[in-house]
Design brief:
GO terms for molecular function: ATP binding; protein serine/threonine kinase activity. The chain is α+β, with helices and mostly antiparallel strands and 486 residues long. The protein contains 15 helices and 18 strands.
Length: 486
Amino acid sequence: MADNMSPNSTSTSTTTNNKKETPVQLLGRFEIGKLLGHGTFAKVYHARSIKTGENVAIKVIDKEKILKSGLIAHIKREISILRRVRHPNIVQLFEVMATKAKIYFVMEFVRGGELFNKVAKGRLKEEVARKYFQQLISAVGFCHARGVFHRDLKPENLLLDENGNLKVSDFGLSAVSDQIRQDGLFHTFCGTPAYVAPEVLARRGYDAAKVDIWSCGVILFVLMAGYLPFHDQNIMAMYKKIYKGEFRCPRWFSPDLTRLLVRLLDTKPETRMTIPEIMENRWFKKGFKHIKFYIEDDKVCNVEEEAKDDAADYMCSSSDQSMSESDNEFETRRRVATTLPRPASLNAFDIISFSPGFDLSGLFEEGGEEARFVSGAPVSRIISKLEEIAKLVSFTVRKKDCRVSLEGSREGVKGPLTIAAEIFELTPSLVVVEVKKKGGDKAEYEHFRDKELKPGLQNLMDEESSAAVAAAAAAVGSSHLPSDTE
């Protein structure tokens, strides 16, 4: 592969003289490692960030090939979809880079390989299969709520991370709700034969959400049985079995599991199970936990994993403390540890870009409505006010240094409303509060900004002004009081 990267290069290769080759770099940002896989239009490499040392996977797409095949719109749609569906059980897209000849998707590196490799060794234990199925349904339900339908779900497109958690990958055949025709259905024939739903075979239009659910049913059967529910050496004979819904559950399937599969592999889409019905199913619910997560710096952060890390850090720090430490010393140390850092200062370029006439933000980031407020209040008071506003509308609040994330609980087509607020120092006595919509519906964001956020921050400014006037008045008054010696 030309253009900054060689296709067969690896970061550990050696020359015939037993000298290590210099690792091949991509745009001065990543060291490229071994080839992980390839298709007609793309190759996927293991890579390492030069700056952070983080392992990533880089999908390299040949521009000339996709131009000749008319797939530019397809690639743009895949990028849009991957940005829309950020979830702990979906492979993350971190960024997209491009040169004259190549497009580079920088993605999460998933170490555990395909779920298919695990199933190829034999059927899984029921509790293991259930965990993978629960994570699959969580991810698929998340996509459907955002108008995204995978349409090619199969064990080969399900990866496992180092902790054994499932990650849905390969959204290349995904569809979005704005592709639906006037009859409310999709009409493109796609998917892998053994996992495709009967209505897709009929070529009369289909509900893509129900097609994904059928594929999930086939996957669950394969995980539990170790073989396909509809299988035949002759592909037309297999299609007939799928079309008629002819399958038999092995004897080791429990009655609850069999009933669930009969509902998932219902040949009539209108009576096939929905995601909410699956989540209420008795077999599915056993040991199921809803995943709590949020987006920080465009990365998915798992709340439960962070809580475990925090608990471990606390235990370590507690064991390191001297048992003779007094309560007062501990309290002093706690106060110092929780003191807010000073906000980042704005440089001249930042200030110029705040002017609508010189707004350059479009050069650096996509979309995201913004609002800015200037305040003389202390950072701690601003953060407290943001928490107060969030509480009024039942938003979840997350804080990190001088940044606050507010997340709504109501699920919309574009997910819950998520807002990021960051505080910057303008002068020693003034700060700028920059507010951005990170996710959710635009109209809902504008309503929250205009009806809750602006009035709340304005009240804070009024309170600070009143406090300043009162303090000044008190200072003037005290200067005229007689002293004890007068």
